[in-house]
Write a structure and sequence with these properties.
5-stranded parallel beta sheet, 98 residues, Oxidized Rhodanese, domain 1, alpha/beta, globular
Length: 98
Amino acid sequence: MLLFGNINRGLAEYGSVPGAVLVDVREAEEFAAGHIPGAVNLPLSRIETVALPKDTPLFLYCLRGSRSLRAVGVLKRMGYTNLRSIGGINTYKGELTK
């Protein structure tokens, strides 16, 4: 598992990893209010419903970084092996999609 203190650096790596999935673990209302383009919403409260191959590169973020860290822990216990918590959208320096 890799941790990034800076979501912008994490997104740069995400863009260079083939097959990577960008996962916003905030709740649906937060996601709808604005998210990083290309992200899929899988709230921490439903993270156990993920159904991807266990070696899929997953780049997770939330508002400040704490929920994405918790999501990484849950996914690790589920057998996922290629996980990165890239921090919080509150320091993201790009456009948001609504």
